[in-house]
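note to self: the first set is below, dont mix up w the second
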Amino acid sequence: MTAVPSALQCHVLVLNKHYMAIRVCDVRRAFSLLCRELAEVIDHDDGQFSNYDFSSWLEVSEFKKKFEPEEHDWLHTVKISVAVPRIIRLLFYDRLPHRDVTLNRRNIFARDHNSCQYCGRHLPTSDLSLDHVIPRNMGGTASWENLVCACLKCNVKKGGRTPIQAHMRLITPPVKPKRSPVININLGDGRYSSWKQFLDYAYWSVELK
């Protein structure tokens, strides 16, 4: 199969067999699971969710290609085009997801939307660092409530001081998110609106892999 870059960059929400969200995967992984009959597609249409095995999804894709091509991302072969599913359900996996969001650099950057929490500039990851609001030399810990994104300039300016001591102000007080910040970012994209029903009641860590 071939795909335009936007299709390859899509994310797919993965549910266990009890319809609980457990992680997010890329398109290649999703189709690998579908082709091996380890998962099925959960499709949202007109307020209803429907289940399709891979062969049925190929047939549904033909219909979608004819009547609603702009509403989907597509993978193409010589003979057919296949709509990229937004949600898949594992058929043989019933483990419960983790209930805690992992404290790591990726999740902190996602929570803060890759923006310096002192000057507000949105920057690439390479131009950002992590700042301890209460410095470690003052007893500050590595925690959700004490770590924020900071540009290199603001981090150097603040140094080993508190924001008050450095005459700097946090734009948003840091808090621990209830679910993976990466998921929150994806929910801002209309393509992933169908995820919301499966995440509204979630307190799980959903990791992007």
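second set (the one i keep forgetting abt)
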Amino acid sequence: MKNIKIKSKDKIDIAINHYEKGRGNVVIIAPGWCMTKDSAAFRQIAEFFAQCFDVISFDFRGHGKSGGMYTFTATEIMDMDAVVRFARKKQYKKIYLIGFSLGAAISIIYASKSILVDKVIAVSAPTDFELIENKMWKKEAWAETFKKFEANRFLSIRPYLIPMKKIKPIDIIEKIKVPTLFIAGEKDPTVCSWHTKKLYDKALCTKKYKSYENGCHAEDLFLHFPEDFSKLCLDWFKD
């Protein structure tokens, strides 16, 4: 696995982990808010996909080893574009995106504007940043956060606190042309499952929706249902 830094359009350093094994297709992993490519959960996710594909996992701005400050989907599309273009230069036959939480929102926004990706998986995607419930007092939220606590990761987070205009995924979901898999957890305390279902219902592309009855948020779906979640994603990307 190679640690590389590339530049976004607005000159922000974006840190990536490139699991390069010479395979024809690549999976790009987009973590959510407060998660990084080097967190334990996302290393597990990357290593899983690396069994079948080349993989690029990266830190959005304001996270981990990337520069800049996080703007909660307002400018992060430039980070994803830099990563996708890096993948294109490697001449992969197909480029797949899997995004989690706000990483899923950014993946949706990017796929609505770009012709450079071939398939998308959106896990716990919100319809609108302003409508995210984020019920952190609920056991389903704080208990899972505590389990995944990593001091270095939390200390690396740099949010931009001045409000910026954001694209709402629900407003652009109909523009996505590539096949998209929507995954949600019915007990998600952060992005309630209705968000992802509403995006699925409104999408016009080839699509599929999977809901986990006892599922929580984003990467927790992979951690709690590893076999089913993994098979679901592999089947989607391999079809």
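remember for set 2: Residues 77-89 form the longest helix (13 residues).
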